[in-house]
UniProtKB/TrEMBL annotation, chains A, B:
Superkingdom per UniProt: Bacteria
Keywords associated with the record: DNA-binding, Transcription, Transcription regulation
Transmembrane segments: none
Pfam families: LacI, Peripla_BP_3
Residue ranges annotated for the HTH lacI-type domain, each copy included: 11-67
Name of the protein: LacI family transcriptional regulator
Keyword Glycosyltransferase among record annotations: no
Length: 346, 346
DNA sequence: ATCGGTCGTTCAATCGTTTGACCGACAGTA
DNA sequence: TACTGTCGGTCAAACGATTGAACGACCGAT
């Protein structure tokens, strides 16, 4: 039998106060554990009982109005379908929850000017702070600034003078990947890089070049191609690498800047009749669940994406809005060995 | 040069009213486009100018307090990493935005009792309504009920007496898949089903049986195995299908209840030395971007997941809380032909 | 000249919490 | 006895927007 819910007349502080025969101020202070409150244990119990029997829940709107805090954080990502952001969200959400905050995650992919819409909607006191993952423009930085909200970038290093960001150790990840290939005996190692706009791509490319240089190997321009971080882009980029190779031979291994592109790379290689890892070894950045089930299972570099998201929330909440915050999360950046890498033939 | 932001003293209605030399009531009514407001165009312009020059933004907390509406909707999913939910979120978010609402998406995977935490956090007037995708318990239904919020289930049909849900036409999707296999000439068609708890799994299994029956084929119990909608579960289920087959021969085709499990199924087949589609054809439900890049590219049945999410939001916002709402979204449920299905050998 | 009816606008109560200020009672001290 | 503190609370003013009610001015009709 269902209890028919009459339009419940919300139970408020005064209801509780009446039942406990105290002033509502007491109730409020009990709830918020005001350290300045001195009160008999007996009274406190009466209040707590009253709260319980009435099933009282503080009204968030009223509280927000009074305290000028929303208890909510915003996270703007490009696209929910991208598993990299799924990981970041997961970490951020959990950290926010632990600090009693709710996380509003919005994607900009939906509409043409998704970011604007979100800045509009969230910049009215709806959130206490904003986390931006993914690309942003200078104009958006302007707008953000004018909202007067604390905000920072996640997995992106902004180009302006707003030095607040958390990123991963992309260069190190790239180095791990390339050194793995080197240690297997590869000398001719190609790179499917990310888009020019993404600074993560720059750092991974830099790590790749660095590792190659350290090994005393010159990188041929023809062995580096650029994709847009999607599997389609990866497929294309690998295609152009193979095309370039017609005259000068094929790399025996490829370091791919992210897993999504690696999926396309595997595709292209298969269609070209090249076996992985027998003919070409492939290693990519980001150890997403998917990697394990590709054909062949993909060797990757695990990045602490969840920690990244979590750390971003922590920093956003703990640091003063005007304070500079630049942090690199580098825990547990490590190679995950699977079946897509092997020594080169001969 | 950055404008240094002094701690901005929020600009409020009265500031605007003063500048426009009208009462704040006017400003409020102008903003909310109160149809009952009769006002000279000149005055209206003055107000609008004032709003613009001051950069006024209404304070959400105050508005929520007064109107008892949050302008926010909640969506609770099991896990962000599951691309099925990514699609639902995307659709829901876009629909919410179109209606001037913000969507708070929370996952229950984070902590042991994630659902409870969310019901706690969101059930304080933070959201105007709640969408539940994924499994829920009777106890949670109880709690939900006690929050006095409108809520409904998405892609799940609740078992209780709360008849508010939007689902997809799972039986039809299954039929499309199986009929495709039948038309290729397969007679022995296995099924990797979803978990008993999920009613989507039940409907897909029912559709499978229905289609088989219509074709006059008896389904052997050994040809149906159950997985938990993850790729690991799919791999296992396919394993047991192969084990069962030792005595009675292998199915020439498998209908898999979702893409995640199909990934595992392909894995198991590959390890068993069976080629897809030469030895076994595979077709799965849900046409996620991933499907295109599996090896081989997977034939699927596309389901309108985004529409599902969008429709859920629409219904939640438009229907009275006590009204029953049961809808099946079935637009664009169609077969997507790729390379994982082919006629059986001989 | 008076009345009624729009038009254009103002008044003020209200939503539910938080929080600084204030206050009475009682105990201990000088 | 008067004074000073602590204890255990109460009072009331915010926070910023919404909205029903009221109000003065003006116009046309009687």
């Amino acid at each position: 039998m269902t209890t028919r819910r009459a339009a419940t007349p919300r139970v408020t502080l005064v209801d509780v106060a009446k039942l406990a025969t105290v002033d509502k101020a007491i109730v409020s202070r009990v709830i918020n554990e005001d350290p300045a409150l001195v009160i008999r244990q007996e009274t406190r119990d009466r209040v707590i009982d009253a709260i319980r029997t009435l099933g009282y829940r503080p009204n968030i709107a009223a509280r927000s109005l009074r305290t000028a805090k929303a208890g909510t954080l915003g996270l703007v990502i490009p696209d929910f379908a991208n598993p990299v952001y799924a990981e970041i969200i997961t970490g951020a959400e959990s950290a926010a929850l632990d600090r009693g905050h709710v996380l509003v995650t919005g994607s900009t992919s939906g509409s043409r000017n998704g970011m604007d819409r979100y800045l509009e909607l969230l910049g009215q006191g709806r959130v206490d702070g904003l986390l931006l993952a993914g690309p942003t423009s200078a104009r958006e930085h302007q707008k953000l600034q004018s909202l007067g909200l604390p905000w920072m970038m996640v997995n992106r290093r902004d180009t302006g003078d707003h030095h607040r960001y958390v990123i991963l150790d992309d260069a190190h990840a790239a180095k791990l990947a390339v050194e793995h290939l080197l240690s297997l005996g590869h000398r001719r190692i190609g790179h499917v890089a990310g888009p020019t706009g993404a600074d993560t791509a720059k750092r991974r490319a830099a790590g790749y070049r660095q590792a190659m240089k350290t090994a005393g190997i010159t990188v041929r321009p023809a062995d580096v191609a650029r994709g847009d971080y999607t599997s389609g882009g990866g497929a294309e980029a690998m295609g152009s690498l193979l095309a370039n190779a017609e005259k000068s031979g094929t790399p025996t291994a490829v370091f791919v800047a992210n897993v999504a592109m690696a999926v396309g790379v595997l595709d292209t290689l298969r269609r070209a009749g090249l076996r992985v890892p027998a003919d070409v070894s492939v290693v990519a950045v980001h150890d997403l669940p998917l990697a394990e089930h590709l054909n062949p299972p993909l060797t990757t570099v695990r990045m602490p994406l969840q920690q990244l998201g979590g750390r971003a929330v922590e920093l956003l909440l703990s640091r003063a809005p005007e304070e500079q915050v630049t942090e690199v999360v580098s825990t547990a950046t490590e190679l995950v060995l699977r079946e897509s890498t092997a020594p080169p033939r001969i």
